[in-house]
Target: HhH-GPD domain-containing protein
Amino acid sequence: METLKSPNSGTGVAGDRNVEYKLPLGVASPTFNLEKAVCSHGFFMTAPNQWDPLSKTFQRPLRLFDDVVSSSSSSVTVQISQPPHASHLLLRVRDSVDLSPAHQQSLMEQVRRMLRLSEAEEKNVREFQEVYSEAKTSGFGRIFRSPTLFEDMVKCILVCNCQWSRTLSMARALCELQLELHCHTSVTKFAPKTPAGKESVKRKIKSQEKSRNVKKSCKDFQSTFGADGTLKVDTCDISIDIHESNSEKTELPFHNTMGNFPSPEELAGLDANYLGKRCNLGYRASRILDLAQSVVEGRINLKKLEEDCGGEASLSNYMKINKQLGEINGFGTFTRANVLMCLGFYHVVPSDSETLRHLNQVHGKKSTIKKIHQDIEMIYGKYAPYQFLVYWSEIWSFYEERFGKLSELPIAHYKLITAANMRPKNGVGGQKEAMSLGWIEAD
Model:
């Protein structure tokens, strides 16, 4: 990855030290479009992701891992842009000096994962667009995902059994919590390190004892929060306001009031009731906590889980990983199907009430939970192994007919993408519906 010095690099002014890197697009260069790659799934709307419709840039915090198994990491804010007619992406790391080769590699891997910039994914895109010509015309083919599998898995839990507005709220609350935890741990480090995948029974016991110590530390830590779940800043011995910022105050990490998405290590020691109340997670809190603890204690190896895909979305790999995911608390059929989609398996369409609505509204199928898989096979089976990509292309097109181009939607309107707003009003189409919501003006 080539390093480009920013004009402001090394000035020593807070918020003004940036370093830029080129990330080659490789075989994806002729057809890759950053806007289409990012704004292709609702995850791009969830914290801590930030898409700027005006500059067409994407920004979020990313962790700087020292190596592939390191659990100790810091975060930097990375802005991603695509220069016109260039065969590379430009990564601007804000408030930073030159990164070490290991940290540069860490950033590259996370960006490539989010944007699905791999030879295997490029092969999928090209094959899918041959099978489904409409996608080739529109440039659809990549589905945005998170920089880590853990974040994907948690967000797949967050989309279950609730409206999109609540999913957005829960994701943001988790990132706000991460900032509060980061603030605390900058003074007192209490998060345990991830144990190695293969370890002795003695080390496992030691890890479990460490987790119990973490829980005790977190209970002490939670007493420093107010009744509304916000951090009492004086405990952190820093003079910033977590919920407000202006030019006269110390600039917050990541240039806003959110932190990064929390890591397994940051969540593992929290109390489930506290986590649920702080982030309004409901029953999801215990499932997220179980997942985080399983990762920290070595019972779930996320790196191996991704490696088991082997770069090949074969049926045998799918069955193997689906079985492993099924052993995790709270990972039912719908959640597993979404996680497997994030891992690059596109032959299964996750089915829920939104799927029923889509089949009814777009395909005229009065489907039911009992016959939904039969109807899905009837409509999308001919596109195997890319059934999900065809389904999602239809879903995304439908959303844009209703609400306008989603990459141009103001952030404040993300929460309005709900089932209630999907229904036609007075038999009219999407433009009049968008006008009624105040998103576009009448001629």
